[in-house]
Every structure is written in structure tokens, then in C-alpha cells.
Amino acid sequence: MISDRTLQAVAAGVGFVSLYDFLGWFAPHAFVGMQLLALVLPVGVAAPTGSMQPLIDGGDRLVHDEGFGDISRGDVVIYDAPDAPRTGLRVLFHVEAGENWYDRADPQFLGDATGCEELANCPAPNAGWITKGDNNPRIDQAAGRHGPVREEWVEGRVVAIVDDDGLDITWLGA
Asked: Annotated Gene Ontology MF terms (predicted)?
């Protein structure tokens, strides 16, 4: 721990009359620096549910890259659909508007459906991403939660998960 006397000596050695004078100069610069960093550092979102367990528990903080980088199969993305809560789910594949995506999906995540006509949001009502929570039994779009996740809804890829309980950090591959 640095003593007040040491701080005063350092402050006086660089041209400040007192520690108070130094802090008066330093605080605005630190504030501006934090504001600049906020523009480039990732931001966090609290996971609303446990639909991504065991990787992500409800309440964990999801740190995402705010739109930098391309989204690809297997990424966990944060998105804010107008008819659903802001959340983070795994991307399975991208579809085009009007596409019959039934044959591209893993049948174990489609319930009892035997074709596109038996699924909600198939054919795809819009271009976007087909998603699924790791802990959910069905694909979100097949279950009728919402249509394919539009590009403009995606806020970024999750790059780290901060555990709500122990503050452990899990880094996801980029």
C-alpha cells in the first residue's frame, strides 16, 4: 500500500503543489479515458434464463463484441428481437426469406414434425439465423418463439461469460 506521504512526494516531484492538486488534474483525464474505452470495449448483458445451461446460467453476464467479426455456425450471439426478451443463444445456420429449412435442421430438435409445413416459421418468413438454446429441446423458430433472427437484431458474438456466483470468467473461442 502506498502511503499519503509517498503520493505527496510523487505529486510534488512532477510539478503539483499537493496531492489534491494532482487528483484535480487526474480525475477529468481518467473520466475521458474511461469514456473512450467504453466505445471500444465489449459490453455485457445478463442472461435472462437458463436456456443455455450448462454453458450459461440465468443471471450470468454475457460479454459480447458489439458487432465486430462475422457470425458463424456455433457462435453464441446476443440479439434483441422485438417480440422476445434480449437474450443470447447459439446460432445453428442462416436461412433466406421463404426458404424451407426443415432438411437443414437436426431432426432431434424439431419435435414430431415430419416436414416444413408442421413447423412454425417454416418456410422462413424472413432472412436470418436459426437459433437454439443449448438446454432447450427444440429450435427456437420451430417452437414458434420468434422468426429467424434478423441481422439488425444481432448486437454481437458472446466472447466471455462472467459467472454470476463466483465471478469466474469463461472465454469463448473467437
From this structure: serine-type endopeptidase activity
| 28: confidence class by pLDDT, cuts 50, 70, 90 | low
- Given a cut of 60, whether residue 61 has pLDDT beyond it is yes
79 strand-pairing partners: 87, 154
Q: Are residues 19 and 77 in the same domain?
A: no
Q: What type of residue sits at position 156?
A: G
Q: Please report the pLDDT score of residue 31 as a whole number.
A: 56
**pLDDT for residue 9:** 60
Do 29 and 58 have their domain in common? no
CATH code, domain with 95:
2.10.109.10
Strands 61-64 and 169-171: unpaired
DSSP secondary structure of the chain:
---HHHHHHHHHHTT-SSHHHHHHHHHHHHHHHHHHHHHHS-EEEE--SSTTTTTS-TT-EEEE-TT-S---TT-EEEE--TTS-SEEEEEEEEE-TT---GGGS-GGGSTT--SGGGSTT-S-SSSEEEEE-TT-SS-TTTTTS-SSB-GGGEEEEEEEEE-TTT--EEEPP-
